[in-house]
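Human: I wish I could look at a protein chain and see how it folds. This is the protein in question:
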Amino acid sequence: MRKSAYPCATLRPRIRGIELPAAVRPPAVSYLISLLDKSPVPEGASAAQALAHTVAQAERAEVLGYHRFWVAEHHGSTGLAGAAPEVLVAHILARTSRIRVGSGGVMLQHYSPYKVAETFRVLAALAPGRVDLGIGKAPGGLPLSTRALQSRHDARHPASFESLLLELDGWLRDVPPPEGPPDKAWITPQLATPPQQVLLGASPGSAALAAELGWDFCYAGHFNGDTDNIERSIEAYHRVRGRVPSLALYAFAAPEAAQAVQQVGELRIHKLHLPGGLSFNLPTPEAAAEFARQAGVGDYRIEETRPHVIAGDAEQVHAELERLHQRFGIPEFVIDTPVPAFAARRRSIELLAEALHAVAA
């Protein structure tokens, strides 16, 4: 197996459920594994239960040795409970001690870059070296939610995403003001260790923007798994930064491969195409049609796609991750578990951790 030049994952081996000390961790393997949790609400469960499960997953992920744990931002959704990632991040940081925790991501179009920078500066001050600020371009909800979030914005002069990201970058890098009256706003708290900055995207343009700003980049393979697009995005980032970005994808493990395939089911993404080239990913055709209705658009097209999901037993999942690592040089995979049931989600991350230990041993 070719070894990567990147930092490697280590998982604590367990004997009959008992953790062994860090000193006897197995040798490193060739890629890091992290988790993205969207706080899904299974049928019959409540949003409060979904959020509690997300926190429990983060605690378990730390014990199992995952590298980082990200939470998402979705608005106006009965199926996804995580509307405020910065709140969840703070709570999870307080309940863990080692694992990196962050947003996957904050939907920047809704917010003041100054306030986002303040929030994550405070988080980074509370947990130095453990905070990730992941930024996304999507709205994270339907148009009525977006209008509510942006009710104080100047709709006649909307800011571009690129300008917002550039402003955010400036506030995150800001240094203490010189002596004397300031000539601009200045930001606190001042930090020795700022949050790690990650742009989330699924295009060469997003990869190039992240590279230009010196940010990390995570390619959203769970939304756009087109191989050519992945290659172009990796090349756009690598050309400037000299390294390969991380890759987010759907993956799910069960004790038997057939169980995994059955539990994932017929996962679909419904891409809504609006006039002017705008497109949005929705979970159902009904949600896509409702998005168009709220946007006041009658001329639209819905494209149904089946995202790539790595589903099988844990060894099969790792074999596919290793194949992707070998092909593209991916140093880190951010796994989105596409099954809402709490017990199945927990078992999947445990099986993947156990299998990774077996590979490394």
Remarks:
- The chain is about 40% helix and 20% strand.
